[in-house]
Structures are given as C-alpha cells and as structure tokens.
Design a protein that fits this description.
Radius of gyration: 16 Å
Largest sheet: 5 strands, mixed
Number of helices: 4
Distance between the termini: 42 Å
Structural class: alpha+beta
Number of domains: 1
Order of helices and strands: EHHEEEHEH
CATH topology: Aminopeptidase
Helix content: 25-40%
CATH architecture: 3-Layer(aba) Sandwich
Oligomer: single chain
C-alpha cells in the first residue's frame, strides 16, 4: 500500500491507545512465534502501563487515518557494571502493519526513540532479534546496529 507521507502522524502513545496497542502486541507475538515454538498461545511481552507512564520510557506510534500502523519503544535501563556506560536504551515493540512495510516507518520510529533517549544523555542502544529473522536483522543493520551477543537455548524436555 502506498501511503501519503504527509498524512502520517508520529507521536507519543497515550493511555487511550492501550486497546489498539494490545492488538498490535499480539501481532508481534504472532510474527515471532515461527522463530520460537515455546511462545505461549496468548503471550504478553510488554508492561504497557509502565511504558505509557514511566519517565524512563517513550512509546512511539505512527498513525495513519486515525489508526496506529507502527510502534516502538525505548526504555532507559541500567547497564551491566562491566560496561563503560551506566545506562542504555533498550528498544522493543518494533512493529509495522504488513500493508505499510517497506516505506521507512520503522526507521523513522527508531530515529524518534533514539533522539528522545539521547536528550536524556543515553547514547548506547540494544535490542533483541531472532537469529533467523533476517529481514529484521537487515533493517537494524541499515541503522547501524551490529550483532553483539548471541543468546543460546536448549529445551531438555522434548
């Protein structure tokens, strides 16, 4: 779908957006389930109340024709003691509705999020992405992200 860029509104999410955000959260869960078969049927990833109200978080949305079409958040978190930075920005809830993908919305949301965190003195950013999700990896690498730490898992029950 081609959109009219001047009709996209980028803004901070509000409490009134929570119902729409819960629907989009399930879209994220559904999109990630192929990469991890152990995700519960009705999993919830995010504490939306905290993300919407915390002074240490910014939940960004893109809206088109009064519908939220893209999301993302940055949360300022304490870093490991072994690192040179005391805090970092953790990025999550990165989602663009399928019909709006490929038009740079994710990039713009990440730029908004990083700019907000930088205004708070945070310049180091982390995010998680499934190793097999090459499309997401490519998108993040275009923004300057590089692989940092590989999480490995095993399930001994199966």
């Amino acid at each position: 779908m081609t959109i009219e860029p001047d009709k996209i509104l980028f803004r901070k999410a509000k409490l009134e957006d929570k119902a729409a955000l819960l629907v989009l959260e399930q879209a994220v869960v559904d999109a990630e389930r192929p990469y991890n078969s152990q995700i519960k049927p009705h999993a919830y990833y995010y504490n939306l109340n905290d993300l919407l109200q915390s002074e240490n978080a910014w939940l960004q949305v893109a809206e088109y024709d009064n519908e939220i079409i893209a999301t993302g958040y940055v949360q300022i978190r304490p870093s490991k003691q072994s690192l040179t930075h005391a805090n970092h920005g953790y990025l999550g809830f990165m989602f663009v509705s399928p019909e709006f993908r490929g038009q740079g919305l994710n990039k713009k949301i990440i730029q908004h999020l990083m700019s907000w965190a930088e205004s708070k003195g945070v310049y180091d950013f982390y995010l998680d992405v499934y190793n097999d999700n090459q499309a997401a990896i490519n998108a993040y690498q275009k923004l300057g992200f590089k692989p940092s730490l590989l999480e490995m898992k095993v399930n001994t029950k199966s």
